[in-house]
């Protein structure tokens, strides 16, 4: 066998999955310090089951899981697997290949696997036991651990020797045998103690068993007699039950007939209600349709009014446009007249200019004198300047006149524009105010509509809730009525039972009935009538009293004797009496009560848990003063032991522990209340009936109130819906008026926009005219000053030339005048041309305005045509909706009349249903009374049958067949009383003595057999331990001698001489002796191992290891830097020894030394390319790597 493969994942520094494939021989694992080489040895030790964290070089087991690095996160688990070649079946399994896996989680959990099958750590230890492998074996020598083979105490060196001797398994078997021997001895002592105690108990139980057996025989005979009497009573009750059942069948048929009549009436009523609901729904639908038609008509009328308003607005716009067109026509006519006048003036000025120019030419021809020419030149020059000045002045005057005319015309137009703007503003303010008023009113109506909607929703919810409440009240009333009938029937039954004293024995019933009639005096009543018990303790007290519930309490002893004589005289049966004048209390002592009260589950004495009249205290305490009530059977048992089984203890479930320890219990099948609960139930029923009657009256009143409320809410809903329809009509009207106002405001805004455009144009013209007038005024003043100056200069020149040209004065004056006239005419013609151009420009502007007005008129005409068509359509729709409203009003009236008629029919049918329901309820009550009688008979019969089953554990048929009555009923009752007296004379009987005596006898026999088995087992275990000790001693000594001889050879080989030996410290006890190592290196004296050098100690330890391996080779051996302290020569010898041993043992050597590497068959390198993460690389044997210096 050898190690084939190692798989490591997440173990210490091996974060990634690492696989090492191995072969027989020597495999060396090399690498720098800190690279994680030794983690491989730790992984092997860990997977073989190592549990010591210190041996794994850690502080806690979590340290073996990869803890993370700078670049990696920590892992949450680690896993190591080794695969062994087992073809030689060195391991005791059938597999030829065995894989051992160990997995650890950071949470602390561990898993072990053998060939991928989960297993226990113990399974792994047992698998490798005595193979030289495992956590305690010598197959893994960790770093620095080689010298520990020499440093430990002699006794601690036994481990490798025992493993080599193959006695580890024997030691384990011996330890198991010693543990079993200790357990056997302890069991034997315990069995002896139990046997002694049981044998002491057997004697007293024998007499108790004899009495119990007699008691059982009497009880069996009493039971048989009681069964025979009970069979007779059941026959009588069965006949009574069958007779009443036939009566119930008749009453049930009558009830079903009444219910069928009620069902038919209810169906008719429901049909009318359905028709009424449908009529109501149709009426609501018609009302909704009416509201929708009203809204539609109002919408059509609003649209009609809006169309008419918009048509009126378009007509107004057309009228405004007509006036503006007339104004434009007048302006155009004025412009054309002005243009004609200017044209005529321009023609006249041109003709005058031609004439003046001709005359001027003539005048010049006549004035050709040189002297005059000189003067003429000067005068001409001055005249020219004067003409220019006059020309400019005339032109400026004409321009001033023109500007003034334009300014005045603009002022008139500005006044007209301002009037138009004021009128538009006033109209807009009026429309805006009307719109705001309508919007405010519309908002008020919307709020009113919201409030109406809220009121309608709340009203509808309230009406639906009221209708639902009404239906629930009706349903609750019917359920309550059924409950009242059921409770009334039950109450009547209970009263009948009380009046007839049902459930009482015949004798007791006769006494109580005669006392009620006055035939007997001094009878207070039965015990069941005189006490009151809380429901919690009812079953317990009934069980405690048993038949005493029917005991009759009387005033005196004489009253009891009178009652007994009456029973005898009338053969009325028997009864037990409690005379108040002689009966005495029987109450448990206070000390015993205190002891019992200290126990958990103690509820009190039975006499303290019932209520009664004080004068009956002695009678009640006589019956219940010595009875303890407990919570349950377990606590009752402890209380009974505390009271030494002297008193009766009863649990709330009816279980009983009688004096002497007798226990009675089991399931109690109660179909109804007992005698104690009957009166309590009757009082409870009376109180419930009173409450139910009050609730029924309240529900009836509530039902009427809700019906009236539903009707009232329906009327209020109709009123609110009519008011909502009116409000919706007003809202539609105001919304139409708002839309009409918006259209008017839009039209006014368009008119104001056009007017603003003309006003802006006029303002620009007037501003330009104002600026030009100012300029002309200044220029005219300058021209007039220049004319004045020039005129003066010409006058002076004329005076100077007066003498010279007196004869030519007229000609000169004429020439000058002509020149001035020519200049004036030319300037006037230019002014007229400029005026004509201005007039043409103004005409073109007015024509553009006229064209825009024509387009606007075309658009308005199209809109007017569309509105006229829409108006006619809306008028026709409004007429149609008005006719539809008339039809709907007639339909609504008919629907309301139909609903009123259905409501009247539904009320009549509802009253008929009530009458038939009362009749059905009366018949149901009759049936219930018959059922009560049947139930009472059935209860009596069931009670008797239940008594047969519960008390005697058999069926009536079985009992009737096997227990026939022997003699008459009276004779059988006398025999029964005799048997009961004999049984009572036995006193307290321990019925468990029979079973207890048999149980103890059987147990003594069983324990005796067990004791014999334990003695035999102890002897066998002692013999087994002796055999194991002998086998281990022989094997140990044989192996020790072999290792001793091999140790000397290995020491001599490694040290090249010297001597070494192994010595037992106690040869007489091979199983505990220690082992001393004696070493004498070459050239040295024999000395203490502690005085050897480190290298010598290492070589000595290696010699011992090699000796063990020679005697008992292991499949593989891991050596972790064991040769670190050796020099090169010793390393070579160490490697040589490894090679010799490698024939039988596979070696995995973790080393730094070259000599060891050179001897290896395979070489693996461990590096840490990433800080904190080890990685395995293959290294060629030819590579020269100086690991020793690494």
Characterization of the model:
The protein is an alpha/beta fold. Among the domains are: 1-139 and 1114-1190, 3-Layer(aba) Sandwich (Rossmann fold); 524-673, Alpha-Beta Plaits (2-Layer Sandwich), CATH 3.30.70. Helices cover 69% and strands 10% of the residues. The protein is built from 21 helices and 24 strands. It has a 6-stranded antiparallel beta sheet. A 6-stranded mixed beta sheet has the order 8-21-22-3-23-24. Strands 13-15-16-17-18 form a 5-stranded mixed beta sheet, sandwiched between helices. α13 (633-642) links the parallel β15 and β16. α6 packs antiparallel against α14 (675-800). The chain starts with a strand and ends in a 12-residue tail after the last strand. Residues 1182-1190 have low confidence and may be disordered.
């Amino acid at each position: 066998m050898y190690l084939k493969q190692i798989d490591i994942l997440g173990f210490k520094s091996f974060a990634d999955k690492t696989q090492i494939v191995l072969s027989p021989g020597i495999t060396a694992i090399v690498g720098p310090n800190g690279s994680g080489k030794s983690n491989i040895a730790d992984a092997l030790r860990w997977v073989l089951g190592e549990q010591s964290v210190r041996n794994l070089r850690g502080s806690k087991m979590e340290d073996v899981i990869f803890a993370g690095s700078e670049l990696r996160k920590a892992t949450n688990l680690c896993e190591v697997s080794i695969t062994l070649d087992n073809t030689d079946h060195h391991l005791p399994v059938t597999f030829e290949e065995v894989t051992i896996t160990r997995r650890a989680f950071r949470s602390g959990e561990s898993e072990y696997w053998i060939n991928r099958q989960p297993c226990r750590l113990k399974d792994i230890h047992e698998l490798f036991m005595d193979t030289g492998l495992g956590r305690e074996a010598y197959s893994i020598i960790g770093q620095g651990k080689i010298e520990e083979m020499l440093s430990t105490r002699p006794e601690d060196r036994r481990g490798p020797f025992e493993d080599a001797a193959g006695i580890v398994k024997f030691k384990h078997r011996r330890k198991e045998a010693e543990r079993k021997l200790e357990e056997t001895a302890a069991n034997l002592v315990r069995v002896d103690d139990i046997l002694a105690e049981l044998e002491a108990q057997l004697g007293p139980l024998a007499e108790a068993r004899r009495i119990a057996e007699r008691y059982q025989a009497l009880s069996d005979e009493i039971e048989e007699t009681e069964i025979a009497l009970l069979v007779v009573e059941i026959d009588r009750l069965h006949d009574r039950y069958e007779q009443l059942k036939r009566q119930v069948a008749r009453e049930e048929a009558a009830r079903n007939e009444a219910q069928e009549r009620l069902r038919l009436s209810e169906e008719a009523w429901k049909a009318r209600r359905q028709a009424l609901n449908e009529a109501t729904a149709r009426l609501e639908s018609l009302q909704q349709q009416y509201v929708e038609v009203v809204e539609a008509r109002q919408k059509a009328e609003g649209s009609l009014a809006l169309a008419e308003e918009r048509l009126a607005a378009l007509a107004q716009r057309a009228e405004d446009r007509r006036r503006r067109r007339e104004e434009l026509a007048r302006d155009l006519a004025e412009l054309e007249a002005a243009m004609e006048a200017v044209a005529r003036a321009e023609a006249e000025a041109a003709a005058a200019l031609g004439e003046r120019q001709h005359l001027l030419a003539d005048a010049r021809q006549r004035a050709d004198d040189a002297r005059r020419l000189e003067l003429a030149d000067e005068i001409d020059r001055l005249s020219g300047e004067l003409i220019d000045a006059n020309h400019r002045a005339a032109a400026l005057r004409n321009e001033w006149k023109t500007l003034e005319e334009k300014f005045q015309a603009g002022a008139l137009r500005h006044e007209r524009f301002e009037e138009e703007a004021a009128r538009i503003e006033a109209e807009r303010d009026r429309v805006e105010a009307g719109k705001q008023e309508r919007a405010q009113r519309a908002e008020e109506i919307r709020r009113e509509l919201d409030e109406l909607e809220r009121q309608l929703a709340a009203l509808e919810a309230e009406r639906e809730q009221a209708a639902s409440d009404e239906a629930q009240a009706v349903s609750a009333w019917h359920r309550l009525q059924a409950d009242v009938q059921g409770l009334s029937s039950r109450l009547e039954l209970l009263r009948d039972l009380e009046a007839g004293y049902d459930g009482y024995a015949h004798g007791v019933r006769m006494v109580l009935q005669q006392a009620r009639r006055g035939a007997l005096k001094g009878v207070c009543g039965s015990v069941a009538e005189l006490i009151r018990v809380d429901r919690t303790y009812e079953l317990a007290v009934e069980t405690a009293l048993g038949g005493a519930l029917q005991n009759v309490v009387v005033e005196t002893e004489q009253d009891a004797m009178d009652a007994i004589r009456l029973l005898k005289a009338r053969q009325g049966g028997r009864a037990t009496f409690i005379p108040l004048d002689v009966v005495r209390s029987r109450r448990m002592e206070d000390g015993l009560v205190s002891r019992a009260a200290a126990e958990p589950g103690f509820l009190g004495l039975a006499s303290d848990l019932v209520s009664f009249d004080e004068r009956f205290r002695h009678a009640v305490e006589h019956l219940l003063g010595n009875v303890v009530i407990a919570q349950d059977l377990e606590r009752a048992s402890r209380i009974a032991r505390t009271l030494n089984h002297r008193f009766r203890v009863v649990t709330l479930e009816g279980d009983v522990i009688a004096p002497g320890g007798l226990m009675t219990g089991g399931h109690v099948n109660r179909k109804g209340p007992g005698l104690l609960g009957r009166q309590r139930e009757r009082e409870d029923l009376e109180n419930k009936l009173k409450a139910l009657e009050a609730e029924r009256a309240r529900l009836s009143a509530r039902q009427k109130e809700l019906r009236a409320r539903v009707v009232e809410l329906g009327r209020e809903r109709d009123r609110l819906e009519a008011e909502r329809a009116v409000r919706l009509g007003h809202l539609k009207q105001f919304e139409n008026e708002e839309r009409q106002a918006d259209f008017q405001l839009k039209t006014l805004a368009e008119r104001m926009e056009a007017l603003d455009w003309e006003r802006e144009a006029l303002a620009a013209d007037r501003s330009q005219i104002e600026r030009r007038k100012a300029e002309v005024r200044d220029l005219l003043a300058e021209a007039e000053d220049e004319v004045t100056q020039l005129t003066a200069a010409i006058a002076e020149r004329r005076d100077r030339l007066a003498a010279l040209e007196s004869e030519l004065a007229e000609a000169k004056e004429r020439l000058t005048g002509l020149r001035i006239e020519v200049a004036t005419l030319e300037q006037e013609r230019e002014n007229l041309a400029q005026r004509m151009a201005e007039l043409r420009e103004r005409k073109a502007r007015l024509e553009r305005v006229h064209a825009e007005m024509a387009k606007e008129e075309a658009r308005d005409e199209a809109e007017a045509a569309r509105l006229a068509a829409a108006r006619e359509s809306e008028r026709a729709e409004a007429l149609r909706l008005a006719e539809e409203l008339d039809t709907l009003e007639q339909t609504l009236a008919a629907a309301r009349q139909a609903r009123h008629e259905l409501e009247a029919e539904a009320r009549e049918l509802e009253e008929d249903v009530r009458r038939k329901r009362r009749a059905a309820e009366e018949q149901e009550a009759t049936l219930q009374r018959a059922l009560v009688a049947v139930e009472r008979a059935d209860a009596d019969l069931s009670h008797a049958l239940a008594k047969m089953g519960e008390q005697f554990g058999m069926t009536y048929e079985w009992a009737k067949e096997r227990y026939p009555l022997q003699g008459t009923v009276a004779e059988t009752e006398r025999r029964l009383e005799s048997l009961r007296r004999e049984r009572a004379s036995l006193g307290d009987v321990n019925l468990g003595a029979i079973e207890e005596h048999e149980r103890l006898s059987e147990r003594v026999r069983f324990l005796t057999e067990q004791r014999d088995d334990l003695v035999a087992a102890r002897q066998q275990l002692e013999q087994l331990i002796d055999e194991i000790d002998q086998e281990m001693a022989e094997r140990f000594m044989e192996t020790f001698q072999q290792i001793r001889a091999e140790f000397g050879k290995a020491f001599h080989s490694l040290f090249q001489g010297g001597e070494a030996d192994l010595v037992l410290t106690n040869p007489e006890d091979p199983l505990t002796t220690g082992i001393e190592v004696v070493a004498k290196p070459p050239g040295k004296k024999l000395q203490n191992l502690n005085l050897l050098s480190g290298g010598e100690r290492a070589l000595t330890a290696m010699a011992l290891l090699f000796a063990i391996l020679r005697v008992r080779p292991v499949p593989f051996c891991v050596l972790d830097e064991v040769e670190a302290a050796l020099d090169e020569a010793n390393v070579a010898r160490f490697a040589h020894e490894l090679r010799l041993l490698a024939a039988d043992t596979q070696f995995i050597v973790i080393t730094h030394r070259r000599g060891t590497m050179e001897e290896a068959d395979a070489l693996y390198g461990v590096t840490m390319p990433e800080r904190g993460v080890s990685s395995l690389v293959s290294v060629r044997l030819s590579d020269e790597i100086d690991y020793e210096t690494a």
